[in-house]
Amino acid sequence: xxxxxxxxxxxxxxxxxxxxxYDRDNTFFHEDLQDLVEAGYLKLFVxxxxxxxxxxxxxxxxxxxxxxxxxPATALAVNMHLVWTGVAQVLSARGDASLDFVLxxxxxxxxxxxxxxxxxxDSVLFDSRTVAERRPGGGYAFTGTKIFTSLSPAWTRLxxxxxxxxxxxxxxxxxxxxxxxxxxxxxxxxxxxxLGMRASQSGTTVLEGAEVPHHRVFRKLPVGPNADPLIxxxxxxxxxxxxxxYTGLGERALILGVEAAKRRTSFKNGGRSYAQDPDxxxxxxxxxxxxxxxYPQLASVxxxxxxxxxxxxxxxxxxxxxxxxxxxxxRRVVDLAIRVSGGSSYFRxxxxxxxxxxxxxxxxxxxxxxxxxxxxxxxxxxxxxx
Length: 386
Prior knowledge:
By secondary structure, the chain is of the alpha+beta class.
């Protein structure tokens, strides 16, 4: 199915019509989520034999791009469910069945969320400030604080990880697992009052000995960078789907800028449309060219993941480069669209005003600008000398 068939215009317009209210009231997108569930959207990666759409990453990314043109915050939060189901699909395509249960549970209606981010942890997936304490029977109790936990009001499965400091001879081991909504030992803070992406309700999750039984522990990895397929799958899905959301946001901003240029008229020039003004035309063209450079990059990287392309050490530079290009391009296009649209876009309630706030979140998602440039430099130039 195409993105237009999965997200028909009528559904997209209903979602768009609610976005401003969610943002204004700082509330979760319950109605959007229900509509998306009924449309089978949370089953994009679930195999068709299990009632899903059976998509790969390239097709799912285009769906997310389309959803983000209507409601970026809704798309960003849904991303976290799609990351886990996408990881399961990417691993399965490579012969790794360790997360097949995620696809089975998603087929049954479970909603997954991503509980890995930690304040002050610039090692991201390669270390953790959360403590994972081994329990009798092979399970682990997790104690720590996870930030930016999108889908906080709605998830039924939360993927988390932490470090068992006693493992591997004291070098530590990173333990990955899932808790359920019914798991005791965690709290979700009502602290999501942000500049943008407000409907995502990405509240802080405090783990206070939350136990993951042994059968829900799906990886134990050494501290530091490693070549485990899970790491590749998480980066591939997280960065690509994130880029898709910001691509859609930029696409919508360009459309709004074009509409404004055609709608606005110049008093000085006898009521002529601003679409005839050379400076305005230059800005619209600049935004359009920036987006035209982004669309094929998103499509190409996602297709390479689906096609098991062998980029070797260049894989991570490609993924982080896509994410940074998407978030920075979207920010530049929103800025140009606001300049084209004039002072009305500065008022609260304007869609461009909301997009301006939403797009700023892109700089905070991993990989950030500094980390991404370091990754790319290391791939091309080698690491810094000691």
